[in-house]
Amino acid sequence: MKHKRIRPFNTSDTYPEQKLDNDLCQAVVAKGTMVFVRGQIGQDLETSKSLHMGDPAGQARKAMENIKMLLEESGGNMEHLARIVVYLTDIRHREAVYRAMGEYLKGIHPVSTGVVVSALARPEWLVEIEATAVIPDQE
Length: 139
Hints:
Helix content is 24%, strand content 29%. By secondary structure, the protein is α+β, with helices and mostly antiparallel strands.
């Protein structure tokens, strides 16, 4: 059972000036087991080493790779994503981060909120992405 996506859209329609291509929606109706994924950054989960210094797109890709891996370890997959929250330390990183993030969200349409913050837990981190997924109950 897939989650019900309310008013799906692509950011190329809503933000044409930014040349983004992310599949999102306004709401997700989901039933099943909830998985809350801690905010992920450009960090190797095995070594805790920070990666992609100064590269917001690289950090976003690594954060999304971490989210994918953690969802799989939880018994789910990226199609179970219901919500993501993106924290940026600089609004100028938005386009690069959302392009990288969009590579992992094609056809999924989670809800998304973006927030600009003054800093993250370490000064080298430029983006943090947290996720909520719902793994459907077996029928």
